[in-house]
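Ligand: fe (ii) ion. Inputs:
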Amino acid sequence: MERSKSVRVSSAPEKDFLPLYGTDHIEFYVGNARQAAHYYITAFGFRGIAYAGPETGIRDRASYVLRQNKLTFVFSTSLRPGTPIAEHVARHGDGVKAIALIVDDAEHAWNETTRRGALSYQQPEIVSDESGELGISGIRLYGETVHLFIDRKGYKGLFMPGFKEWDPGFESSDTGLHYVDHCVGNVGWNQMNKWVSFYENVMGFKNILTFDDEDISTEYSALMSKVMSNGNGYVKFPINEPAEGKKKSQVEEYLEFYEGEGVQHVALASNDIVKTVTQLMQRGVEFLRVPEAYYEGLEERVGKLEEKMQPLRKLGILVDRDPEGYLLQIFTKPVQDRPTVFFEIIQRKGAKSFGKGNFKALFEAMEKEQEKRGNL
Ligand code: FE2
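Predicted complex:
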C-alpha cells in the first residue's frame, strides 16, 4: 500500500539539555545578615543550620543558612566596604543575589548554557570537605542577579564546604512553608522578551503563560508578564516588565528603588495556607489586604472550595480558579524598607496558573501602598 504523503513523522521528544530538579537555595545579600536570620527564624519559622564567617576562616563576609522543609535561604553580608556584597547592598538594598538550581552536573549545566550565550558568573568547580564533594557553577541573569547550578549528590554535609554547623541557640516552630513554587523577576522597559528568549534559548525553558497589559491593568498600574517553565515544570520564572499606565506602575517603582532589574517576589508553597498565614501574622509578617468587597460573591466567581470562607476572609487570602483546579494565595508587604522584594504564600489545589483573577484587586491594594509611600 502506498504510504500517504501527508504522514507526519513525529520527532522524538527533544532531550532536555538542562535537567533541573528544583530550587537548591536562594541567597539574599543584606545589610545585616545576623538580624535578617533572626527575622526569618522567628517570623517565618526557619531553622538556623549553617554559618560561614570570621569564625570559620572567612574574612570579608558572614553567611547564615536557614532551612524549613525543602526551602533553604542564605543571608550574606559584607564585613567591610568595597566588597562585591557591600557594593550590591549599597546599590540595591537587601535583595536576592542568587537563585540556585539543583542539577546532575554543574559543569555540564555551565557548558551547555554558556555555549548558548549565557555569561559566566562562576566557573565550574568541585568543592570538598570531610562530608564529600559538591559541584557548583553560575551564570549571570537580569540585573546583578545570578543562577547557580549545584550538584550535591556526592555531598552529605549540611550545606556546602566552607560552612560549619550553626545553632542560633533558639528555635521557633515551622510555619508550614515547603518549597519555592516560583520566583518572579522585574526587568526594564521592553526587556521582557529578551529574557524570555534567554530562558528559551540558553536554558531550554518554554513560555507557558502570557499576560498582556489588558490582563494586568488597573487605573494606574500596568505591566506585562510571561511565565517561563523548565521541561519538568519544577522551576518556573515569570518575568515582568512595566507597561504604560496613567501613573507609575509597581514595576517602575521597583526598578527605581532597586536601582535596576532584580527578583520581585519569591512564592513559597504551603499545604495549609490558613494555618501558615495565621502563624505568620501572629509573628508580625505584614500582608497586603484587598478590600472586603473582594469576598462578596467569591464562591460564585471561583466555585466551591474545600476551605471555609470565614478564615480566608479574616486573613485576606485570595482565591482563583483555572481549568485544572484552584489556588489560594496572599502577598506580604515588602520585607525591607525599600519597596522591592516581597513574598507570596501559595497553596495549589490543582491549579497551575498564577492568580490572574486576583490581579486587579491585588494591584489596587499595591497602589494604595505606593500612594502612602508617595510613589504613585
Ligand atoms: Fe507569584
